[in-house]
Amino acid sequence: MVVEVGYARAWDLEACAPWWPISAARARERDAAGLPYVAVYREPGREAPLEVRLVSWRDHYVGLWVYDALGRRTYDLDMRLLDDPSRLLRRYSVGWYYTGPGMAEFDKTCPRITVDLYPDGKGRRTEERQGQGGGSSITSPGLRDDERWMDLPAFGEWPLLSAQVHGLSEPPAFETAEVAEAAEPGEGDTPATCWRPPRPAQPGPINELFRPGVRVTDGYHPEMTVVEPRRVGTLRVPSGLLAVSGPDIRHGDGLPCITVPVRPGEYVLDEARTRFSYHCEWRDAEVTTTEATAVRLLVHETPAATWEMALGPDDDPRLFIEQQIAGFDTDGATGCFADAGA
């Protein structure tokens, strides 16, 4: 079997097609520079690709998307390059098992299996079933080391990783697609419809929650107005190390998971509030209420220009999948600020 390999700057999710095809030589240059690019594997006569490999070494990331003959994605593998430059961690994968040709891509009722792996050997396998009984089950993956990690091939030497899925018993012969050379667009010109490397969750309108008069929404109530924050107390941090944690959670060394250095002193606690109206079904009337939305420890009167996620000592941003957050454990859905020295 002959498989054509083409390269491009990106993969357009809406069109399910490569965006801005590039030559293999140009793709090799981007690979060496750590810049994003994609490799598309096609079988002659088949409209949908066999698989798409998405690479961005500056983000420690290689992705693999496998497609069926109907153009539906059936497998999504997220691999990460960590401290060992010779191998990749199979960090996260999702497999969709469509029950028929009429089932749409990513249908909510489609059975799927998700595997979440970490370099320390821990992980979780979640199987979501369809039909009578439905539900899901969570187990330990129980994988061998060679099933968790993959040796990193050199550029141009990647195998067709989905060969077994497509029923290929013999290694295919690869042919490189020909591309007319053209000036490439700038790095910031990639359309919004194109794939990008996974990003952890980004901060929301944190400052705005404490600015009276700002209009916000929680997704359920479209018209919410920020009112004056309420000062609820003070916190002394004599050690100069602020702890953010669940109040009843202790780690093995007795220290909180997340700590942030601040100047030793006493800081005020503010509670953000919003006012909004909604229809109360119990009263069968329109009701206006004020509710708390956030609590902050004000370490400086000057508003923050940018925000970044606070990380614990074991949090590695290289492992974060799309929209993942760092945080702390809690048994009661509660959190607290405290002096770490206490």
Tags for this model:
342 residues; mainly beta; 2 domains; 12-stranded mixed beta sheet; 4-stranded antiparallel beta sheet; 2 helices; 19 strands; 40% strand; globular
What does this structure look like?
- The protein has two domains: about 1-175, no CATH class; about 205-340, no CATH class.
- Strand 3 (about 35-40) and strand 4 form a beta hairpin.
- The chain is built from two helices and 19 strands.
- The chain has helices at about 25-35, 145-150; strands spanning about 1-10, 15-20, 35-40, 50-55, 60-65, 75-80, 85-95, 110-115, 125-130, 135-140, 150, 175, 215, 225-235, 240-245, 260, 265-280, 285-300, 335-340.
- The protein is globular.
What amount of the residues lies in strands? Answer: 35-45%
CA-to-CA gap between the ends? 67 Å
Q: List the domain count as a whole number.
A: 2
Helix content: under 10%
What's the main sheet like?
12 strands, mixed
Instruction: List the uncertain runs.
Output: none
Please compute the radius of gyration using only Cα atoms: 25 Å
Q: What class do helices, strands and sheet pairing give?
A: mainly beta
Number of strands: 19
The H-and-E topology, N to C, reads as EEHEEEEEEEEHEEEEEEEEE
Total helices: the number is: 2
Please tell me the overall pLDDT: 90
Shape: globular
